[in-house]
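dumping this here before i forget
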Amino acid sequence: MVFTADLIRKIDVEMVCYFMKADIEEDEQGVSRIKKIVYSPELDIHEKDVLLIGGVLDTGITLDFLTKHLLLGRPNLLKICYLIDKPQSRKISINADYSGFVVNTPDPDYVVGYGLGYENKYRNLPYIGVLHAG
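structure:
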């Protein structure tokens, strides 16, 4: 949310903001699946330009699901923007149109700070850092 707030203050066009949350679960074999998407019920993107903003683009599973879901609303344009892009973690071939930083850290390292956290910690750091597992 910190990235989104800073970004939209720099976009000088009339806009409406909607917030979405995707709940994902992973089984013992590491297979992820979407449990549900929570968003405002009045989401109307038909023939509108849409910018989907996210924190970390990791496996691509959530982004793939969200883009397919949003395209059902027949937007005029759908662009994807992420603060952090971790292409080495992809399980699905999908990319952001815009990314702030490309981070090639091995899993299970975590990117933290600037609103991003690990176990609900480190979100308040005024910078972006990598938390090494172990």
